What we know:
The protein is an alpha+beta fold. It is built from 20 helices and 12 strands.
Amino acid sequence: xxxxxxxxxxxxxxxxxxGRLRRDSASTQLEAQAAIxxxxxxxxxxxxxxxxxxxxxxxxxxxxxxxxSLASLQQDAPPMEGRLAIEMIERxxxxxxxxxxxxxxxxxxxxxxIGQVHRAVTRAGVEVAVKVQYPRIxxxxxxxxxxTAVLGSILGMVFSGLDPKxxxxxxxxxxxxxxxxxxxxxxxxxxxxxxxGHPHVxxxxxxxxxxxxxxxxxxxxxxxxxxxxxxxxDQARRSEMAEIIFRYVFRGMYRIQAFNGDPHPGNYxxxxxxxxAFLDYGLVKYFTQADIDEFELLIRAMLDGDASNFRxxxxxxxxxxxxxxxxxxxxYDWFSHYYDIVMHPGSHTITSEYASSMxxxxxxxxxxxxxxxxxxxxxxxxxxRINLGLYAILGRLNATLDYRAVAEExxxxxxxxxxxRLGREESTWLxxxx
Length: 434
């Protein structure tokens, strides 16, 4: 089946089954929708498989039908043979493998949707991780990206009120960048430079001379994966882990004006010295000052509690279509769910149940008619991974923290003094950095 025919089939099914779905129960509607989405994702194999994998790990709170239908998209890609990876490296770097590495493990240590990672040692004796892109995967995904009708159709199935064109354009741009490991190396270098010497955050060094568009070489990081790390930690340490991750995400947004848009548990390594290593910089969104200013206006309007002003701010930001048939208070109450943890000072615990409620807000159009009027402009496309992915991570950590106080440290318009031990240590680092 071609990409065009897939888009047409998906759209036809959506239209042709509309009358029947109205007669079915809400559960049956959701199961049918999930089946169509998953079938199309699975057939496309490229970009839609990747988007499916991005969404499917956030399964807490996702409706059961959608979760079950997406489960098949969660598995890592099968690794390519070591010999094929070596051929790719030699073609990209030029010359034989031994000219670049004194050791190279042919068995991959990790495999993902567009590439896999091998442990190696450089000729200078440095232990490194070599990420190698699968042959022709870039061409497959770019071919999928060329058919924007498919992307729009899939997004429209899930978010009925969405204007898909700007969002599809943003996703195309970011995913195209993710296929370019040279761009990823540049992204990673931005975070390396900013976080150099940080007491809690570690970003592995890039070996630019051993990196190309399809090969990326970074220092190898030794650390525990997410599940073993949180299993071994007591609750106090889990809350500290959560604080480090929370600070990393929002300091990046507001101070570097860059968001690493893949808060996946597989991209964290917990080091023996207490630091967290943050990996994978393929999906990075850079914000303009105008974007940051708009974020500030929204947060200030929400915290001020003026429902009318908040609604106007949402409409100006194109997050809510004008003419939505809801009162200002209803709009304020619905959107305030996204701001819960910073609405009021004091410690709050993010549980898995809370993270689940964030996901349900994005999927449960049966009860939340507001979704039919809500929109996701390009600047907010990847930040939705906070509502979906980041909170899922914090919920797994069952983290307790005064999120409002920490946020006021990170927001440039408040720039408050630190209130936690980690904050004070970070403040000392910032003073040295400045």
